[in-house]
Amino acid sequence: MTTLASGTDTLTRDALTVLQPGFTGTTAPDWLLRRLGEGLASVGLFGRNITSSGQLAALTAQLRAERDDVLVAIDEEGGDVTRLEVRTGSSFPGNHALGAVDDVELTREVAHELGRRLAACGVNLNWAPSADVNSNPRNPVIGVRSFGADTELAARHTAAYVTGLQSAGIAACTKHFPGHGDTAVDSHHALPRIDVPADVLTDRELTPFRAAIAAGSRAVMSAHILVPALDPDRPATLSRRILTGLLRGELGYDGLIVTDGMEMRAIAGTYGIERGSVLAVAAGADAICVGGGLADDATVRRLRDALVAAVRAGELPEERLAEAADRVRALARWANTARRAPEETRGSEIGLHAARRALTVTAAPGLGSPETFEPLTEPPYVAALTPVANIAVGDETPWGVAAELVQLLPGTVTGSFSAAERKESDAGAGESAGRAALQAAGPRRIVAVVRDEHRHPWMASALGTLLAARPDTIVVEMGVPQAAPRGALHIATHGAARVCGRAAAEVIAGL
User: Is 260 a catalytic residue?
Assistant: First the structure.
């Protein structure tokens, strides 16, 4: 373990301590190890840093050789948002699937198992769970990352998830405060706005966060959203009214407050990351997450220097920065104490069990019932109607049922069909995609895979074109099942994790 660099003064050390940067590569670069020696206390990992559990364990060991109490954070929600299994798809269903089952003990078990897997790899802080109530069905960034649209359901499962994760020695980071569910804009691209009265926010958005706080969530992540009923001028991440007045004062939360990624356009495009970081700490944030897109020493140096300069200029109280750094160190101490010998994990057993329970299977009127459905015995054609991926999920993680059906019904053929981003609302583009899928399928039985059909007019049109010509088409909805079920058999998986695809494929193949 390297001791703190002797030339690093307290102010500079505190400025480094509140940063949670990312980096590129699958081993720690020299600059990162040097910064750990100077006071940096946290590191954020993303899919680009991980190739296998063994490699990840070696990476975290490398970090701990430099600083044994380092916080190693990751964005591992399970379900659609996975970093551990970014190249294969997750072994665990996401929140929406768990909410569909509505068994809080199952949610706790899944979170505990996911936590054990993280702990075995040396990770000790998870930027999860999402406590957002998905009250806006057209939400482009939350969706299946939420337990659902029901406030009380979201609250009880958020608490169960926090409890399960932390029982494995992993600090939970409940997000995105004060609630990102009623938005129609992705904060990766612009600043969302929630225009509802304060009493609605209190009863709906804040209830799951109260449950998380009561369950002992060690961290809470702020949202880059403007909520005029709470603060008409600044987004939550930069709002003292929201972070200090509401979260600290009214809700009584005393754990770590982490920002969402400061390089997201909602902040970077308006304030810039340096100014945004200063304002966030001044508002009450304790840790600055940066590194999803910006991941180098120059960024760390710029943010460190901006914080130091703000203190020296009187724009940021030195006591506030010191308090933030102390909270980071306190969480690091907890995580270090909670660290335990690796436990034997149950693999994907609990995840697949949960994914099977989450399925909702229906049949179109006049086409029989799920009970009379005759499983496929011949390899089908899988037509994946693919939307533009949001940044949180990423476009590198595979999804669908094709890979699983290839295993169960060898010879299965697949094709992907989409509309250009500028034509996402164009029904005509959907008809063209549907006709292309019909031609590619030939005489094979079609399995059409969709994701949030209700949000994509082109997708609804493509599916309509398929069903008009081939009413025996099986439809698998892997997003939020808001559109009316269609198809000879309609399978709603409530998420696109690999185990969700496996569960749907088993139904199709009659297993």
Answer: yes
